[in-house]
Amino acid sequence: IALVMLSVGCTKESLNTKAIAANNTSENIASVHFVGEHYGGGVVFAIDATGTHGIIADLTDLGLYTWRPDNIITITGANKEGYGAGKSNTIAIIKSHSAIDPDSSYAAFACGSLIKEGFSDWYLPSKKELRTMYSKRRYIGNFATDYPYWSSTETTGNSADYAAWGFSFLYGTEDTFTKYTVLRVRAVRYF
Predict the structure, then answer these.
(1) DSSP reduced 3-state for 47
(2) What is the pTM of this model?
(3) Strands, DSSP E only, in 58-159?
(4) pLDDT digit string (tens) for 128-179?
(5) Cα 171 to chain center, whole Å?
(6) What are the Cα distances from residue 90, in Å, to 75, 173, 176?
(7) Are 68 and 100 a contacting pair, CB within 8 Å?
(8) Which of 70, 80, 131, 159 lies in disulfide reach of 85, CB 3.0 to 4.6 Å?
(9) Quick one: 12 exposed, middle or buried, by C-beta within 10 A (0-12, 13-18, 19+)?
(10) The pLDDT of residue 181 is above 50
């Protein structure tokens, strides 16, 4: 009966306000986030239209890594480029490489094994995610320009077994690099 009375006697806006007040618990109120916000172990650099989901960049680089372990030449299938693709790419890279050399360290493994501020769902960003990090670099900060950064996106076609995409924060350009090249790595996570 109360719902019928509210819908008849109130505008849509006041109905929403009363509904929120009635359900004012932390489980029922979604936080709205913004680019540049320090949240979830890093800095938000991309958000969806609702402001409740997005991508967070770590505040610092993990170091210099190759894209693949030493002496492994393989196509991992990690060739997705869009938002959210970095996570599935990272899983594909680790699965492919750990079957051959489980004790090696490389870019995707460094991100996938990161635990920071209680979060363990970090991954190597996709080509598009890395490009967005560059465009939002003033919010994230601490990017180096001496080496480009690895993405999790493998090239396609004949070069897929030996090349993947990287991004230069000095020039603002993306390019392919051989997988044994040492580049910088910055982890991201989705929320």
Answers:
(1) strand
(2) 0.80
(3) 63-65, 149-154
(4) 999 999 999 999 999 999 999 999 999 988 787 889 999 999 999 999 999 9
(5) 21
(6) 13, 22, 17
(7) no
(8) 80
(9) exposed
(10) yes
Residue written as token pair 């960049």: 57
Q: CA of 158: how far to CAs of 71, 73, 118, 153, in Å?
A: 19, 13, 40, 15
**How far is the C-alpha of 44 from the C-alpha of 33, rounded, in Å?**
8
Euclidean distance between CA atoms 185 and 60, whole angstroms: 9
- Find out whether 46 and 132 touch, Cβ atoms under 8 Å: yes
| DSSP letter for each residue of 49-65 | TTSS-EEEE-SS--EEE
Q: Return d(Cα 189, Cα 57) in angstroms, integer.
A: 7
Distance CA 82, CA 79 (A): 10
Helices 2-9/12-22 angle, 10° precision: 150
